[in-house]
Each structure stands twice: as C-alpha cells, then as structure tokens.
Amino acid sequence: MWSKNKYKLMKIINEKQLWGISITRFRIWKSFYVTLLIGSFMACDDFVEVDQPNNLLTSELVFEDVATINAVLRGIYADLRDGSLSDDLSVQLGLYTDELDYFNTQNTLFDHTIIASDGTVFSWWGGAYNLIYVANAVLESVENSTFITQENQDQFRGEALFIRGYVYSLLVELFGPVPYITNTNYIANTIVSRNDVNEVYDNIIKDLEEALELLDNDISGERIRPYKAVVEALLARVNLYAENWQDAEDMASNVIDSGVFALESNMDEVFLKEASGTIWQFIPPSVGENTSNAETFILFAKPTNVALYESFIDEFEFGDQRLASWVGSITDDGNTYYYAFKYKEKGITSISSGSNEDLISFEYPVVFRLAEQYLIRAEARAELNKIAGAQSDLNVVRNRAGLRNTMSSTTQELLDAILRERRVELFTEYGHRWFDLKRWFTLERPENAAEVLTPLKPNWKDTNVLFPVPESEILLNPNLLPQNDGYQ
Hints:
- The protein has helices at residues 23-41, 66-82, 88-96, 108-111, 119-144, 150-175, 186-189, 197-214, 228-241, 245-256, 292-297, 321-326, 370-383, 387-400, 411-425, 432-442, 449-453, 471-476, and strands at residues 12-13, 17-18, 21-22, 56-57, 100-102, 278-281, 306-308, 327-332, 335-340, 350-353, 356-359, 366-369.
- By secondary structure, the protein is mainly alpha-helical.
- The protein has a domain at 269-366.
C-alpha cells in the first residue's frame, strides 16, 4: 500500500525474463530493494489498496520522494559492499592470479577451469545488471519527477550515473564486450546485443563526465557517497584502462592537486575509516562491524581457505614498511603462512566508556584511495614520455613506504617499476592485480597475464583474459552471442 498523492504505482508484469536476467535472480533483487521501499512508504499516512504483485516490477516505478530515493541509493551502496561485486572480488580475482594460494579441495577460479555455467560469473553478471537496472530506475524517476528540487535532482542523477559507470567499469574488465543499457524498458532489453569494449569505455566516460558536472565536492562526513573527487578518481582509472593517457593524467591530477587528500605516513593507519588518503569507502552494515576483508584474510591457524602465495613476499624490497604493516604471518607445524593484513579488525569492535563497552567500527572497506591516483598518473606520464613526472609520482608512493627513489629512467623501465609498485601497494584490493595482468597482456608488455600465470596455473589459456558470458543468459537472449573465445 502506497501513498496515493506522493507515489505513482508501478505497473506489475508477469514476464519470464528481464534484460536476459533470469526470474530467480531478479526475485532476489526485488525482495531486497522492495523491502527498502516498503520501509519508506509505510511512514505515509495516506494508503490505497493495490493488487498483489505477480512476479516482476517494470520500469515505470517513479520515486517522487527524497527519502525514498535516498533509501534506494543506500540499498545500492549496501549491495556494492556485500553483493557479488563487493570486496569478494579481492578474494576471487586474487585466486585467479598469483596473489592468493588455495588450501581447500577445489576452486574453479584458482584452477582456471571456469566454464560458461559457472556460478561465480553468473553472480557477477546478474548482480551487475540488477544494480544497473536500479540506477536506471532512479535516473528515469528523477527526470520525470515534479516533487524534487533541482539541487536534489542533480545530486541523485549524479550518483546514479556514477553507480552505472562504476558497475560497467567492472563488467567490461571481467567480460569485455557487454550490453550498455541505459533504460528500464524490459521488452527492448531482452534482445540487446553486446557493445564492443571501446563503446563501453566511451559510454562509461560519458556517464561519469555528466556526473562530474552534477555532483559537488563536499567531503564532509565519512566519504561514503560519491562526490566530485570520487568521480574523478574513477575517470582516472577508466581512462588509464582505455589507454587515454592524457585524460588519465588530468583526472588523477585533479584528485592529487585538490589538497583534500594526503598519504598517511603511518602504514598501519592507511585503512582506518578516517584515513586522510581515502577517497571513497563503504560503511559497514552495523555499528561495531568492520570489513569482510579482515574476516577472510586474517589467520590464527593453518589456512583452510586462502593465504598469500609465499612467492609474493619476495616482491617487497628490503625496508619496505608495507611488508611489516600489511602482511601478517603464522607458523603452524613448522610451516609459515602469510596473509593480507591491511585491515586489522576482525569481528565486532568496541571502546570502553566508563563501565560500558560502546560498539564502534574502526575500518571501512576502501574502494578508492590516493596512492592509486599517484600510480595512475605515473603510468600515464610514462606512456606520454614525461619521464621526470612519472618518476616523481612513483617516488611519492615509494618514499612513503620507506623506500629510496626509483632507479628507472626509461619509459619501459618505469612501466615495469610501476607494475611492481602496483603489485605491492594494491594487493588484495578489488582485483587490481588481475586487471593489471590483463592490461599488460592486451598491451603486449612483459610480465603480463600469460607470462606470469602460465608457469603457475597449469590450465592457463590466453583466452582466460576474459570470463564467459553466463550460459543461461545466452539461452535467454541469443543476441549476446558470440560467446567469448575459449568458452564455446
């Protein structure tokens, strides 16, 4: 039951599919987001009786209330924090590369035996398009609204465009060509084809550039919702991946030169929720909770799931403070195991307040941080043959970790040094290592995915640089063909 005066009721449909996303998965999405909506709507005084929904919800949902749109956006951020595109990617893509060793019986990512019916790729694809659907619904609702102020319209539109761009930035790296959907027309979207990679990049950049014009740069609070610098940070990354070197340099410079952020000198404080280098982070589900990253990685005994490859430890130079602060170890039965220790709070945390214990979260999952922007700019400058600038940016990251200036002086030497620096700076963070190995493969640089993973992963094939489009989606929509190479 919804307020007759404030809300336009969506039409209810009973279709078998939406955008090629199966009913089962969409029901999961529907139950999550509609629960949020009902919580907002139940506060209304005026109610009308409506028919019971049969199956799926259509595009004509119009959110004409600020509180409701805020609730929906908070739901999206919660799903980005906890869903299939959360920092679970840190584990999944770490297993796919040379970051994480596996101590259980079998894992298709670790073994490189992914097939088109694999549940992981199914969840990535479906989870992403569910989020895109909601972002598109917000965009359409804001555009059609007569109740929301221009200031709120700009904020909501900017956030929704950023969300769509962010999700697509992950989709294109995982799957390559994907459909770039910008509306909630379920009939049209059941027969979409895939856009090529360059088209996807162009659309992401277009969305983000519009978001940049709409969002302000107010970073008061906990940096948990997008603002201008967050968009610039993503634009820097996307332009780097798209080989738009000058644009990548410019966007990273905007973030670095803003004067808002600073690298933490204490490596143990880089991932605290109030860290000065954090650009965007997710708030935990409840007070006292911290990160799933710590829950997954920190070891108290011999690993039964994942640990860092022992060979990864050799990547740290002598005196690198990141090794001491960000890598933990445990010895069991004479064997030493290493684990990612960037996030240090495992479980519920609290502080003493008189005779009471008050719950408090010390760490939030960090998505964008300043060190990445320096490394993005260093790589872009190296590609532009701006050697001194690239060296300077690389040295900022190295010096803060207690290392001397780089000795690299040519473009190729600098690119190699930047890749190594990215490996020890960004390990187990949202799949950076995999995306770098993949980029190096495409660019035919040394130390790329094939060179690194062939001796480590017996099942490695060059076609593994992309994951398969889920088989179930192709059955629903043959226009998604051709399947990525190696998965036919």
